[in-house]
What we know:
The protein is α+β, with helices and mostly antiparallel strands. Helices cover 33% and strands 32% of the residues. The protein contains 4 helices and 12 strands.
Amino acid sequence: MxxxxxxxxxxxxxxxxxxxxELTGRARAIDxxxxxxxxVSVRLFGVDAPDLAQKCTTKxxxxxxxxxxxxxxxxxxxxxxxxKCTSVKKDADGTPVVSCYAGPFDINEQMVAxxxxxxxxxxxxxxxxAENFARARSEGMWRNVxx
Length: 147
């Protein structure tokens, strides 16, 4: 009988730790590289988007808020869809760093391929190819000069 309770207790702890590593639900963009999903603020793994107030200049000299445009892109990728995020690690401040999907689509990769985020090479080379694609096509911020 004691063995049964020990096993149930161990299984309960194991289940809780697995569940803590995955978040599923509706998401809201905080900025171009962070979302709030299932009530938890997370940062996208391997992605470095412009700061929220960061400006960029078009080739015609017009100033734009690239940080807000990046947030809008992330919001459009996560709006009205069920998002599934898997924890990769935690930042120094304890914020979960995650890979997120909307169905089969890698949201992190989509941010880089759309040109509204850089591949964060210090963290991973996973999205370098997507960044090269966005640069070659002058997508997103790559059609501007980022300040």
